[in-house]
């Protein structure tokens, strides 16, 4: 009987040790994943509340100098504009009420064949200036939207996706922008592609795509929707920003 009790005790200890080792391994993997999260950009300008949903499921309220990680979903609240600078000196400015996913941002100065930039605009609007990746490897950069994919040609462009939420966006004719994707090109060129067709837009042109089943079209400047940003966000010298008071420390919410 004593021998049986001893064997059961030893077996129980072995099980507990196995469980403990498994828990330690899981904790190590989770810690390693957090440490290895790839930083791909930095918040340089901010006028309100900017939130990042991390790939690991956590949420961070960002400040100026906060780091952007690959896989982040960036969300701007009402009245929030933000500007992010990426590894290859590319920059994106987000409008209020926008949601953008940094799906992939791979850049190695010595290995252009590994370049890969994939951004997804889920809602709202942006202005983007492509960096070194866009200049040396056009096909490695893409911006997905709900109605079309934007390919670039070393470009400065604006994109605005409306879904009954663009009432306050200024237009040349004073009307509310239609639902769908609006683009404008300040420099270079972009190409819009969806299942219904493809269209190239050059410097100074405006474009519109109503939905996935409608081909992209060039529209006259009088009907175009330029994506404008405040000078305090667009220019290089940051102005007075509320978030600067936060001490540049991210607040993490699990």
For the secondary structure, the number of strands is 18
Structure annotation, total helices: 3
The description of the largest β-sheet is: 18 strands, mixed
Strand content: 35-45%
Which structural category do the helix and sheet elements fall into?
alpha+beta
Mean pLDDT: 84
Q: In one word, what is the shape?
A: globular
Give helix % range.
10-25%
Q: Can you write the helix and strand succession as a string?
A: HEEEEEEEEEHEEEEEEEEHE
- How many whole angstroms does the radius of gyration measure? 23 Å
Uncertain stretches of 5 or more adjacent residues: 27-35, 237-254
First and last CA, distance: 50 Å
Question: Nutshell version of this structure?
Answer:
This protein has three helices and 18 strands. With 254 residues, the protein is α+β, with helices and mostly antiparallel strands.
